[in-house]
Amino acid sequence: MSTSATSSVLFVCVHNAGRSQMAAAFLNHLAGDRVQVRSAGSAPASTVNPAVVEAMAEVGIDISAETPKFLTTEAVQASDVVITMGCGDACPYFPGKRYLDWQLEDPAGQGVAAVRPIRDEIEQRIRGLLAELGIESAA
Q: How confident is the model at residue 130, as a pLDDT?
């Protein structure tokens, strides 16, 4: 982990339009400024999945202004924890980083009803991550 007071977490999935966007939004919501949060995709989509935006709005988190971002080596290097969600070999590896791979269903092409259980699982994983990092949830 970093020697700075703030941990840095990067969420990576293929399109940065669903899973990684939800994870980043939950971590921002629950940790506030106590964690630096990034998300990116190995092959970013043009927009965030509308069903994901709707599912997050249902729990009071607005991600409608978010845009998918391209995964860069710099983003990985600047992060203490890198959490992958199905990006496979496209994710760069750097010694000394903590890597986690979360096996989550891909919400691409699915409606909001199918996204809700993925959203809820991501929220639980984020709460567990906060506990591992020793950070009390703000919500």
A: 95
Nearest partner of 71 among 17, 128, 4, judged by Cα: 17
Query: Rounded to the nearest 5 degrees, what angle is found at the Cα of 48, between the Cα atoms of 42 and 51?
Result: 125
> Of the listed 87, 122, 129, 130, which one is catalytic?
87
Q: Is 43 an annotated catalytic residue?
A: no
- Spot the catalytic one: 91, 115, 122, 130: 91
Residue given tokens 């409606």 in the structure block:
111
- Check if 29 is active-site: no
Q: Which pLDDT belongs to residue 2?
A: 39
> Which of 9, 10, 12, 13 does the annotation list as catalytic?
13
pTM comes to 0.92
91 is catalytic: yes
Q: For residue 131, give both structure tokens.
A: 């506990």
Measured torsion, CA atoms of residues 113, 104, 100, 57, in degrees rounded to the nearest 10: -10
Local confidence band at 105 (pLDDT 50, 70, 90 cut-offs): very high
